[in-house]
Amino acid sequence: MELFIMIFGALVSVMNPFGTVPVFVGLTQEHNKSERNKIAFLTSVNVLVILLISFFAGKFILMFFGITINSLKMAGGLIIASSGFALLTGEFNKHKGMKKERVKKDIKNRSEISLTPLAMPMIAGPGTISLLIAYNQEFDQLHDVFLILGAIVLAVLCIYIVLKSSFYIVKVLGASGINALSRIIGFIVIAIGVEFIFSALLSVFFVG
Predict the structure, then answer these.
(1) Residue 14 contacts residue 122 (beta carbons within 8 Å)
(2) Which domain holds residue 165?
(3) Residues 115-170 pLDDT 10s
(4) Are 10 and 127 in contact (CB under 8 A)?
(5) d(CA 51, CA 49)
(6) By three-state DSSP, how is residue 71 classified?
(7) What is the DSSP string of 73-138?
(8) Number of domains composing the chain
(9) Is the pLDDT of residue 96 over 60?
(10) Each residue of 179-204: pLDDT tens digit?
């Protein structure tokens, strides 16, 4: 159960669905409620597929490119920590490559937004992918794999609920509330990134 809670907390923190709420609202403000719910559902499905592919195919990617798990942890830790700093400074959307001009362009030109930019890179970005690849290498027991899969499914369900409730969340919390929440999450995300880097350094200098 501790592993389940740890993975679930890490995934939700790194993916940060609340940080995607303003973008989702901006991209779907001209849609009706039914269409927005459909986009939220498709986005969640796309995120689930990306996470599952990352988790199960990650080790083959490492083998193909000859990347060690410690190198992945350090690189992933840097990416995750930088995402956390972006949350703390209120630059999360820019960090994900989602500038206001690009959002407006997407509204006019993109017919399918559930995969890009919402599922990737806004939610399931490089930090999330590297996180799951590392977990695949660390926890290879069947029992652990099922716990991780359960955490992934629950995290995706949370994403769906948050996106589906985006307009309500914006109405209740407002921009300042979302920013405050994102900054709290950002601190947690930085800690996750630092932990990844620290564990990799310990493994290199004291184990390897």
Answers:
(1) no
(2) 2-207
(3) 888 898 789 988 898 899 989 888 889 999 999 999 999 999 999 999 999 999 98
(4) no
(5) 5
(6) helix
(7) HHHHHHHHHHHHHHHHTT-HHHHTT--HHHHHHHHHH-S--IIIIIIIIIIS-HHHHHHHHHHHHH
(8) 1
(9) no
(10) 788 788 888 888 888 988 898 888 87
pLDDT mean over 8-33: 88
Q: Is 90 exceeded by the pLDDT of residue 43?
A: yes
Torsion sign over Cα 104, 110, 114, 120 = negative
User: CA–CA separation, 109 vs 32, rounded Å?
Assistant: 18
Q: Could you please report the per-residue DSSP string of 141-160?
A: SHHHHHHHHHHHHHHHHHHH
Indicate the residue type of 110.
R
d(CA 180, CA 49): 30
For residue 138, CA distances in Å to 3, 29, 41, 90 come to 12, 42, 31, 33
Instruction: Please tell me whether residue 168 adopts helix, strand or coil conformation.
Output: helix
Stretch 97-107: mean pLDDT, rounded?
53
